């Protein structure tokens, strides 16, 4: 059974509807990538799942309806790394990680997890007492991912994690995401402009176009489809 | 010299009160992003509650504790019932609601307890002989008490914000409410707690200042204090707790010195000096002396 299952989801901002019926599945432990041009509705889909936007249709986690309030979504085990990283700049790196554990009460476990993510992302360990606003863009992205992981999600949503980062940093980040997916079995739904890199990670790809799913399949299917390749992968 | 010291003492005492009320303003500003115009009147209302309890022959300390509790409850309820529904529209709407509350709370206090001046007992020794001599100047027990209250409150707030989960979440919401929500912080509860906290701090300022204020407890007691506290909060940059305290003390002392030494200002232009300070700060450094300019990395 799917971990996350969207059926005919519509959502938008005020009177303007952006998603016109999205149907999408993420299996437990699976990495799914969403591709699409600007304005296709990728971020809107992420925000709807995370509870930042009201939606109609059905979103289920483990067959149970997903709540529509952000903090309850986190509590159910779904955590979003927002586009632009959402760094809490006036808080230290350590405090950012603690905020990420807001839904947890196991003090010992929280401490262990902080240690763990400071090891996985060594730069966070080195800068743990520094204000998060002073980190570089890449470091802030690592922090955003680590903060989202502090809630021990079963599904991690990443909205354009490579935005504004140097290629080498992006590769490092994706390698770490792949590693976490492997060791923890955390399922991931990733929105990414850097299609090639993301498809290396994914087992399923969805292509969004003007608020609907235009195509879906394995990365191999996508690479083999000439029309899709020229339109969205750019080669 | 004695005169100078006495003015300094009185300036620091008034300044401590401004600092307390400015702290209340800053706590709300950090969470909600608006200046709570009703803060002074909320403090007035809770002070009336404390006064009324003392007239029921309850001990003053009990009355103060009750006023703090009522202040917390009223602050939290105001956020939940009045501010949150309009906050979705825009900041101006919140400002207007706060202005409405300003007059509403004042009128309600008048309706319940009448407009004649009341004598509020002080929780500290404030008799004619309850002073210690500092360089010839008299330092009265209630002045010391007000200073002590500010120091204790500062300590408690530091503990709250540095070492507790609620405090951490309050800072997170103040920094970036959406990020905090996405991390699982119960933003709405945190905002209500913030307003409650500021209501309680305001209540403390109210019960401490009225025994010292020239008007004692009347419907106009908090007007001038609120103006000075706003200036103090602005001085510190509206989002800085330390800035609010420094601002309160600086404005208290400046006011005491200006009214004492500049005979043109005297007693009648006292509030104008606070206004003057507000204008100068906005002119020279719009973010205040301790305020943060938001940096956005793209």
Describe, in plain words, how this protein is organized in 3D.
The complex is a heterodimer of chains A (235) and B (298). With 235 residues, chain A is an alpha/beta fold. Helix content of chain A is 40%, strand content 26%. Chain B has one domain (2-284): Orthogonal Bundle (ABC transporter involved in vitamin B12 uptake, BtuC), CATH 1.10.3470. Chain B contains eleven helices and two strands. Chain B has helices spanning 2-32, 39-55, 60-87, 91-113, 141-163, 165-175, 177-182, 187-209, 221-235, 241-261, 270-284, and strands at residues 131-134, 137-140. In chain B, strand 1 and strand 2 form a beta hairpin. In chain B, helix 1 (2-32) packs antiparallel against helix 10 (241-261), helix 2 (39-55) packs parallel to helix 4 and helix 5 crosses helix 6. The longest helix of chain B has 31 residues, at 2-32. The A-B interface holds A 50, 52, 70-71, 74-75, 79-80, 82, 86-91, 95, 98-100, 102-103, 133, 137, 140, 147-148, 150-151, 164 and B 165, 168-169, 171-172, 174-176, 178-187, 292, 295, 297-298. Chain A: This is Amino acid/amide ABC transporter ATP-binding protein 2 (HAAT family). Chain A: Residues 4-235 form the ABC transporter domain.
Could you give the topology of this structure?
The complex is a heterodimer of chains A (235) and B (298).
Chain A: E1 4-13, E2 16-26, E3 31-36, H1 42-50, E4 55-61, E5 64-65, H2 70-76, E6 78-81, H3 93-100, H4 107-120, H5 122-126, H6 137-149, E7 155-159, H7 167-184, E8 187-191, H8 195-201, E9 204-209, E10 212-217, H9 219-224, H10 226-233
Parallel strand pairs in A: 3-8, 3-9, 6-7, 7-8
Antiparallel strand pairs in A: 1-2, 1-4, 4-5, 9-10
Chain B: H1 2-32, H2 39-55, H3 60-87, H4 91-113, E1 131-134, E2 137-140, H5 141-163, H6 165-175, H7 177-182, H8 187-209, H9 221-235, H10 241-261, H11 270-284
Antiparallel strand pairs in B: 1-2
